[in-house]
Specification:
Layout lengths: L15 H8 L3 H8 L8 E3 L2 E3 L2 H20 L9 H7 L1 H15 L3 H22 L13 H18 L10 H6 L1
Antiparallel strand pairs: 1-2
Helix pairs in contact: 3-5, 4-5, 5-6, 6-7
């Protein structure tokens, strides 16, 4: 688990010890991971040799994504469809939100909190709108639960897939997403 308690500025460099603490592993575990394919390379910045936190964060996110894909029995999350992906691979979706926050330079903690709150809204409203599941034809397309469901789904789309422009999407498009 990433430990963001380190006070390294963005663009700074972490020593091996700091990098191990950042990843929440021992030094020996860190060295094993450092020998694996895809692990970030050391960098030299301002005469300091080490690892950039953003590189470690990206590597860690990919590890979580791979672990979640294997655990779900699906080779890639795209097979599940975007909305199904959120429900089946919650940790991976949250990790996507973390990566998007890093790319935007915004608070990871705030992005995670918003994702969890929105995810709970999505689940709660889903149960109210589709009480017998998606295969049922008894949908309640009216009222507050439906509006909550569509709003929560829009927010999830924005958080996990910020590259998707939802302004032109209809409620039907959002439902199918």
């Amino acid at each position: 688990m990433i430990n963001n308690q380190n006070n390294t500025e963005k663009g700074g460099v972490l020593s091996v010890q700091e990098s191990a603490q950042y990843l929440g592993v021992s030094r020996s575990s860190f060295w094993r991971k450092a020998k694996s394919d895809g692990f970030p390379s050391k960098v030299i910045i301002n005469n300091k040799v080490g690892y950039r936190p953003e590189d470690l964060e990206e590597w860690y996110s990919k590890q979580v994504a791979n672990r979640e894909a294997k655990r779900s029995g699906v080779p890639t999350y795209e097979y599940l469809g975007k909305a199904q992906f959120i429900l089946k691979c919650h940790d991976l979706a949250r990790d996507c939100v973390r990566m998007n926050a890093i790319r935007k330079g915004t608070s990871i903690l705030e992005a995670e909190r918003l994702f969890e709150w929105t995810f709970d809204r999505l689940k709660d409203s889903y149960v109210k709108v589709f009480p017998q599941g998606l295969d049922s034809e008894n949908f309640d397309y009216e009222g507050k639960p439906w509006k909550d469901f569509i709003e929560a789904k829009e927010e999830i789309i924005k958080l996990v897939w910020p590259e998707v422009d939802i302004t032109g999407l209809t409620e039907e498009d959002i439902l199918r997403f």
